[in-house]
Each structure stands twice: as C-alpha cells, then as structure tokens.
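Sequence design from tokenized structure. All designs in this work follow the same two-part layout: the structure record, then the generated sequence. An example of the structure record is given first.
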C-alpha cells in the first residue's frame, strides 16, 4: 500500500528483570549463574568499579539520584575532584601506543572563594579545564558561584555544582563583586526583534537575555522570537508527510529556546516524573495532557497565554529556513544531536542536558533528537485538508496527538524535520517531552 516506502521498526521493553545473553554450550557451562535480585542500579554500579573517571559516577547519580550507591558515588566524585593530579585526555584522535605521548595532566590547588558571573550571558561549566570537555552545567549572569580550587598555571577554576558535584569554569568569566542587577521591564514581548531571547516574569514583566531578576520573582522558560515566513511542509518519505504543501505563517511568535527542563517542571508542578534525572535535562515521561496541565499553571503564574506549538509551526522552526532533511544538511553527521547513531556521548542511552548541541538558524536547540516533542494537532494520516496558515489541525482523531523531532533512541530517519508520529493524549513515556510557545 505504501509502494515500498514503509520502514518497519520495533519499540520494546524488557521490563525490570535483568536478561543475559547466552553463548555456546561451553561458554554457558562455564559462566556463573546471575545473582538473583540484581537490578539496574546494582548492575550500573558494578560496571563502575575501579573507574577513576568522575563523569561516570556523575552519570550514575543522574540516573539513580536516590540509588543504593548514591552516597558512595558522591564521595567518589569528591575524592576524584579533590586529587592533586588528575588525568585530562586530549580531544585528539588516538595514535599507535608506541607513538602516543604522555597524557596531559593538570594540578588543582585548593581555593575557597565566592565569585559571581560577571557577564550577562550564559557560562558553560565543563567536566574538565578545557573547552573540549563536556558541558555539565550552566550559570547565568550575576549568579553566585562557590569556587573550590584553581588549576595551576591556568585561568580555569573548579566550582561546586548544585547537585553536589564539581565542574570547571574559565576564571576570567567570574568577578569578585556581585554585578548590579538590571530589573525586568513591563511589557509583553511584542516589540522584541526576531532572535531576541527573553523570559516572561510575574507582575507582567519581561526579562530579556542578560537581565538579572530580583530574588523571589518567578520567570518562565527562555523564549526566542521567531519571525513570520513561508515554507514547504512535508516530504515524500512517508504517506503521513504528504502532500507536500506551502504554509504561510504571517505572524511573529515566541518558542522555547530549549525543551522544558526538569528544573522548570519542578518549579511549576512540584514533581519530577522523569526517568533520566537532571535539573537541566528535558522533562520526559509526560503525556500530552500533562504538558497542558503544566502550561495552565505557567499561564496562571505569568499572566501570559502559553501553548504547545502547532504541527506546522514546529516544522517551520525546526527547518529554520532550510530545505534539507535536518537543519544542518541531509546527513545526520556526528555530534549534531542525540539519537541512536548521532555520534554523541548520550546516544541510545539517555537524554542529554538541553543545549548540548549547537542551535539552529533561529537560535533553538534540540529540535532534532533528545526527546519527542508533543504538539497541539490532532493526528491525521496525511496532510489532506490540513491548515496552511500555521494553525493547529483540530480534525481527525483528537485522542491521538502529533509528536515531533525523534528522541535519544530514535534512528536518524525519525529526526528529519518532516518526520512525525502520534500517540494517545494520556500516554506517558520516557521518550516524550515538549517545548512551549506563545503568540506575540
């Protein structure tokens, strides 16, 4: 019926019981019987034994923050970060052992000081003292920072993270005095130019990028102003993506710079349903109905009218003016996203912290991969009769809603800008998240 275009795949879950691959007869006879009752927590911990890589213990805590071995993991991280000499692997291709140079290293001297982020933008906190090290956290302009050490012969300093771990920041980005805090100004964002990053705060105020907010004032997630425009929606890859048709979005609107994070969800909802824990990771394991509940509470706190993106708005911002399969080209490449085969450290294992990959042309992150994103539209198996003005499709089966963008365990084909699937509105799954939008 699809002329060979259908690409079958299977999603499955082995459940909570551990499974073991059995080899040949001789291997099976010599292999020890698995210990009864071993769970994912214990298996993960066993895999770390003997490791001197603090990031692995941080990965354990991210997945099992209240796990059996969480106190030991925190102690191990503190011990490794406090060592006088730590190994730092150079971000270069491996060479033959005979020609390999000695591993570069750095020495951390103890230092106790309180600093503040002196700039107005976002500062990356990295796992090691170098820009090639993975990002493990972020700091905003004016944030207070607890410095716990200095890398000798370098401008890099070690800082304490909110979750009890540690990371490294380039010292010149920190100052000795708290910068004066510009306060948000009253407004609704309508006068902001395309590409501006801002947040809606309580008391009908708007905080643009770099604006520090007075203590106790609630502000919503970061938004980016999106310009009006036209694009060709859909593809010939799947029947559900046809017919390819022109969509005219004749209005400006704002879209979440990142997928809604667990920190943002907890602030608004007071809970965290996510499987892969981390304040700056996307909230997941949420249904379409859950996303609507979050939006309702966010609207009440800010006085704005947030919503989910429509199906066509989502593809418009994902393409960001491009006509290729992905916003960076027709090949998935390496290190552009988090999926099964994207070449990232999180591939096919877990979610990545939001913003771990470069933004697209509209300044938005993670539209391809990480988590599937719920949108407003009811599902139809084609675009026949679909709106062409950016509005949501409210016909079809409205017990089913559209999801976009693919996830950390999706094949690259599902990360295409045109790709779409559906699920039931009340279904929760650890692949499902969302981002917010509002009309300006």
């Amino acid at each position: 019926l699809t002329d060979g275009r259908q690409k079958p795949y299977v999603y499955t879950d082995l459940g909570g019981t551990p499974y073991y691959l059995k080899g040949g007869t001789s291997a099976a006879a010599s292999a020890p019987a698995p210990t009864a009752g071993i769970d994912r927590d214990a298996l993960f911990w066993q895999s770390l034994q003997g490791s001197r890589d603090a990031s692995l213990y941080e990965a354990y805590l991210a997945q099992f923050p209240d796990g059996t071995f969480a106190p030991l993991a925190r102690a191990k991280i503190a011990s490794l970060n406090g060592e006088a000499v730590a190994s730092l692997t150079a971000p270069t291709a491996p060479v033959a052992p005979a020609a390999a140079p000695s591993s570069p290293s750095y020495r951390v001297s103890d230092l106790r000081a309180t600093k503040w982020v002196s700039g107005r933008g976002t500062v990356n906190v990295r796992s090691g003292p170098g820009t090639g090290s993975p990002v493990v956290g972020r700091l905003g302009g004016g944030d207070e920072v607890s410095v716990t050490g200095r890398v000798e012969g370098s401008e890099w300093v070690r800082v304490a993270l909110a979750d009890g771990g540690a990371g490294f920041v380039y010292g010149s980005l920190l100052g000795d005095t708290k910068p004066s805090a510009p306060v948000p100004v009253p407004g609704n964002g309508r006068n902001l130019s395309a590409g501006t990053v801002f947040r809606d705060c309580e008391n009908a105020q708007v905080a643009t990028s770099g604006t520090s907010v007075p203590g106790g004032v609630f502000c919503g997630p970061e938004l980016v102003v999106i310009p009006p425009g036209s694009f060709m929606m859909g593809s010939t890859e799947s029947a559900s993506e046809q017919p390819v048709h022109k969509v005219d979005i004749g209005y400006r609107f704002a879209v979440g710079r990142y997928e809604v994070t667990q920190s943002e969800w907890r602030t608004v909802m007071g809970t965290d349903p996510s499987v892969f824990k981390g304040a700056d990771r996307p909230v997941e394991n949420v249904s379409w109905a859950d996303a609507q509940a979050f939006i309702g509470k966010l609207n009440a706190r800010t006085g704005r009218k947030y919503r989910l993106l429509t199906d066509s708005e989502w593809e418009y911002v994902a393409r960001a003016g491009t006509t290729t399969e992905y916003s960076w080209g027709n090949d998935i490449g390496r290190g552009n996203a988090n999926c099964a085969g994207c070449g990232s450290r999180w591939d096919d294992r877990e979610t990545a912290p939001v913003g771990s990959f470069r933004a697209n042309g509209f300044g938005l992150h993670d539209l391809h991969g990480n988590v599937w994103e719920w949108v407003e539209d009811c599902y139809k198996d084609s675009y026949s009769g679909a709106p062409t003005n950016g509005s949501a499709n409210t016909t079809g089966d409205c017990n089913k809603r559209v999801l976009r963008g693919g996830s950390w365990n999706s094949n690259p084909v599902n990360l295409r800008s045109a790709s779409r699937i559906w699920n039931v509105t009340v279904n929760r799954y650890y692949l499902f998240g969302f981002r917010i939008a509002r009309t300006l």
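Residues 25-38, 83-104 have pLDDT under 50 and may be disordered. We note this feature because it recurs in several other targets discussed in the main text.
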